[in-house]
Amino acid sequence: AASGAADVGAKIESGASWNPYTGPFDVAIPALLLCTVAARMLWSEHRGGVYKADSGGMAVGSIRQAGAAIWSNSGLQSTMCMIALYEAALYIFVFLWTPVLEQRAAEGKDIPHGIIFSLFMCCKMVGSQLFVLGLGEGRYYSEKCLCFVFAASVICFLVPMFTDSYIGALLAFCMYECGLGLYWPAIAMLRADLVPDDIRSTVASLFRVPLNVLVVGCLLCIGRTSERVILLVCCAKVCSSWGEPAPECARCAPLGVSLRQSAP
Fold first, then answer.
1. N or C: which end of the chain has fewer CB within 10 A?
2. Residues 198, 168 contacting (CB under 8 angstroms)
3. What are phi and psi of 201, to 5 degrees?
4. Roughly what angle, to the nearest 10 degrees, separates helices 74-104 and 166-194?
5. What is residue 260's DSSP assignment?
6. pTM, rounded to two decimals
7. With contact defined as beta carbons under 8 Å apart, do 224 and 83 qualify?
């Protein structure tokens, strides 16, 4: 599906009589509207429980509860800081991969953005399947998996800093996306075992504030500094997340085993 959509988008971009850069997005509008109508007609609403308390009071109470949980649990602090730092580098990569590859492409040749993006998605799927294989064999822990991902991510960001090869940079980015496929289920398992269900979304929202500050700060500097400096910043963020102390319970419990018994 991703490859087919990328091929259609490339054809629209090359054949659009209006702005070729916005052509694929314009065509996506009616497709999304059709999906909206289908979801509205075919999906039932999952409303959850009904609460009598006012929404404002519930929100304040949830924030207080999440803040107390973060303050009293050092493992949760380390985990959420690790998530904020690593995902800040990820969001910067989203804006960075296109100019990095364009600068290394052959002169006068456009890179196939849609095909490359679909390749990234395939690499991410490969990483997710590797995680499933490791989980089935019972040999991988969340912490070990994340340490591997962080180490590989640093290498992937360093490669474009030391080579002007288009193929080299593309392979490094594909490896990075494969690592993302490992990262998402590993961090989701670790976060699910550390954060209670009733405040999980609130805790994640609180840590998105520093995450967005880091991302916006770097994006404001992209036009004013060199590509290598931004890549170095991404490496520093990943190394910082790598240096965060892992929660003790994750070091001794395999994936799939509840960690709440050892959590504070």
1. N
2. no
3. -70, -35
4. 160
5. T
6. 0.75
7. no
Would you give the DSSP letter of residue 73? -
Determine the Cα–Cα distance for residues 206 and 150; give it in Å rounded to an integer: 23
Q: If you search the block for the tokens 């504070």, which residue do you land on? A: 264
Please state, in angstroms and rounded to a whole number, the distance separating the CA atoms of residues 258 and 264.
13
Task: Give me the count of residues in the chain.
Answer: 264
Domains of the chain: 2-42 (no CATH), 57-252 (1.20.1250.20)
259 vs 261: CA distance, rounded Å: 5
Cα–Cα distance, 175 to 171 (Å, whole number):
6
Amino acid at 145: C
Mean pLDDT, the chain cut into blocks of 10 residues (264 residues total): 62 58 72 91 69 58 81 81 90 91 85 87 92 65 84 94 93 96 89 80 85 87 82 87 56 35 37
